[in-house]
């Protein structure tokens, strides 16, 4: 019979291997962006990155059980055509992609200033991949998501490749690996928000407060080898 | 039965805002309830919770009615999430 700690370890392994497979493929796309940007002798144009649409389409298809969309946010001022540029695609129910329009007009009420969003600023400033969230991406896709982001350094600045995971898809991985309803187990993001739980009283997306943490019996880092990339914890409650 | 009760209460309140919100909510929950075979014992609890709401309304005790309605909503929400967790754990594949 398996113990709680075995169940937690199995769940951590399932989560980190699922997420790391997505990270690995996204890093390949980021590598292609860096390569396409050249050595700095010439400033690339938007048209030099047109290949990305197909690359990201294949990437979304390959990971459709986890991710619902992906895209690129260009370093501000890096493209000659526009000061800010964001290309994001979402998978439709039948698998085809829809371009997600964002309001990039700074004077607009619905202005989506991606440079101030954590999913852009963190990888751009640290130069490292990171899982951001869970958060509700207002002005973006307006649902509770986790964004995996990877920097693509170029002579014109750091572009950021990202993909969105729904909490519902992650909950599937979590519950399927855990296979226990008792004790209550919470998968917690670095912002203190619940990513998934096996208990009807602890809803995904809600804040898990210090008094809740006091009920914690054991805590396990999901990815001890790369805590900055995947800063998630599994906590079993008393 | 459950959703008709909720809508009937909202109509009786004579608030168009509450009725619109109740209809919206019931429509969202409809498919979840249809997929649920129901479990022995739960039916009685639900009916009891409905009685508590009607009782409080009959006595014109607004606080008690609100309390009973909130209790009922929470139990129903938890019940639906329980079913979701149970089915997700059984499901083949990861998502």
What does this molecule look like?
The complex is a heterodimer of chains A (238) and B (95). Chain A has helices at 4-36, 52-62, 118-126, 167-178, 210-213, and strands spanning 67-73, 86-91, 97-100, 130-136, 144-154, 157-166, 185-188, 194-197, 216-221, 233-237. Chain A is α+β, with helices and mostly antiparallel strands. In chain A, the strands form two sheets. A six-stranded antiparallel beta sheet of chain A has the order 3-2-1-6-5-4. In chain A, strands 8-7-10-9 form a four-stranded antiparallel beta sheet. Chain A starts with a helix and ends with a strand. The relative contact order of chain A is 0.18. The model of chain A has no long low-confidence stretch (mean pLDDT 90). In chain B, 6% of the residues are buried. The termini of chain B are far apart. Chain B is 80% helix and 0% strand. The longest helix of chain B has 29 residues, at 62-90. Chain B is mainly α. In chain B, helix 1 (2-12) packs antiparallel against helix 2 (16-34) and helix 3 (42-58) runs antiparallel to helix 4. Chain B is built from four helices and no strands. The model of chain B has no long low-confidence stretch (mean pLDDT 85). At the A-B interface, helix 4 of A face helix 4 of B.
